[in-house]
């Protein structure tokens, strides 16, 4: 086992806080290991004037960190699981899933507002969020918005938005719950697969036994079910396909959302299965929803 572990992270404040969660966990249970953070800016962080689907998708948030792993400049990388592509390089597997923070989406109002006005403007670049929010706010206009949490909050006042939608998990990790105007239950807006979970990635074939203190079995089962569902339906960065799993005792309850392009509508469905068959559960629900749409 290495005596020094270098953890790679994006440069944003939230990304660093998330990497610190993993760092502190390792240090608590393995004081003999020296843990260092290495930050870098990714392509997804640099290009903020275009939607992700136009510039290459979620991979733009991980490719620089992947390259750093391949070149040996870092030993681990920490990502929000929701930002990771469904296809992971075989030689750079996900080694651990952290305990899940709040998986729900949160609505933030422009300062001075306590609700979204009729015919208001809501900022989101996520088709998943936009599609579901149109049912909750049918009179509103939806406009793209990108950037880290602080950038989006600034844009609320500077660029004419009445509200924006962010993951509650990120706001809570930043200790910014006070800006949340409304939290959407998963029955109202199905979250992105993996939302609220951190993924630790590393090189295949190395000794990563020290990460047992980071791994959360409940999060792992939920992540496997959600990501298998989305992958089976070819859901990528721009796709409204979404999933939320919840472990309840020895079972997993999986809620899936599938977009039907033919009539611009979406369907949701729920399936329950054994925790040990979480991945299979995701594939089964995807197959059911594919069949129901044909």
UniProtKB/TrEMBL annotation:
Query: What reactions does this protein catalyze?
Result: 4 porphobilinogen + H2O = hydroxymethylbilane + 4 NH4(+)
Residues forming the Porphobilinogen deaminase C-terminal domain are: 222-290
- As given in the record, the signal peptide range reads none
EC number annotated for this UniProt entry = 2.5.1.61
- Which residues get modified to S-(dipyrrolylmethanemethyl)cysteine? 237
Q: Write out the pathway annotation from the protein's UniProt entry.
A: Porphyrin-containing compound metabolism; protoporphyrin-IX biosynthesis; coproporphyrinogen-III from 5-aminolevulinate: step 2/4
Q: What's an example GO BP annotation here? A: protoporphyrinogen IX biosynthetic process
Cofactor(s) needed, names only, are:
dipyrromethane
GO molecular function annotations of the record: hydroxymethylbilane synthase activity
Query: Record's GO cellular component, any one?
Result: cytoplasm
Q: Domain (Porphobilinogen deaminase N-terminal): give its ranges.
A: 5-207
Q: Which PROSITE patterns match?
A: PORPHOBILINOGEN_DEAM (PS00533)
Cofactor annotation comment: Binds 1 dipyrromethane group covalently.
Alphabetized UniProt keyword annotations: Porphyrin biosynthesis, Transferase
Q: What does this protein do?
A: Tetrapolymerization of the monopyrrole PBG into the hydroxymethylbilane pre-uroporphyrinogen in several discrete steps.
* Record note on quaternary structure: Monomer.
Q: Which protein family is named in the record?
A: Belongs to the HMBS family.
What other remark does the UniProt record contain for this protein? The porphobilinogen subunits are added to the dipyrromethane group.
**Protein name, entry field:** Porphobilinogen deaminase
Q: Which organism is it from?
A: Faecalicatena contorta
């Amino acid at each position: 086992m290495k005596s020094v572990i270098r953890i790679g992270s994006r440069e944003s404040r939230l990304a660093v806080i998330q990497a610190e969660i993993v760092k502190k966990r390792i240090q608590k249970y393995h004081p003999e290991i020296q843990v260092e953070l290495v930050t870098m800016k990714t392509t997804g962080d640099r290009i903020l004037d275009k939607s992700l689907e136009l510039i290459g998708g979620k991979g733009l948030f991980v490719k620089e960190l992947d390259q750093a792993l391949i070149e040996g400049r870092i030993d681990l990388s920490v990502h929000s699981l929701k930002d990771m592509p469904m296809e992971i390089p075989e030689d750079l597997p996900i080694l651990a899933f952290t305990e899940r923070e709040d998986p729900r989406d949160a609505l933030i109002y422009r300062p001075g507002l306590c609700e979204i006005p009729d015919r208001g403007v809501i900022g989101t670049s996520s088709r998943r969020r936009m599609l579901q929010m149109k049912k909750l706010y049918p009179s509103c206009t939806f406009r793209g918005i990108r950037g880290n949490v602080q950038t989006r909050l600034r844009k609320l006042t500077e660029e004419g938005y009445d509200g924006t939608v962010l993951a509650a998990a990120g706001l809570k990790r930043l200790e910014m719950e006070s800006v949340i105007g409304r939290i959407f239950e998963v029955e109202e807006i199905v979250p992105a697969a993996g939302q609220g979970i951190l993924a630790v990635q590393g090189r295949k074939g190395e000794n990563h036994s020290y990460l047992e203190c980071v791994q959360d079995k409940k999060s792992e089962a939920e992540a496997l079910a959600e990501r298998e569902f989305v992958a089976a339906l070819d859901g990528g960065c721009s796709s409204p396909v979404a999933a939320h799993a919840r472990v309840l005792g020895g079972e997993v309850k999986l809620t899936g959302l599938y977009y039907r392009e033919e009539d611009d509508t979406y369907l949701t469905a729920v399936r329950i299965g054994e925790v040990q068959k979480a991945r299979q559960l995701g594939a089964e629900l995807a197959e059911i929803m594919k069949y129901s749409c044909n």
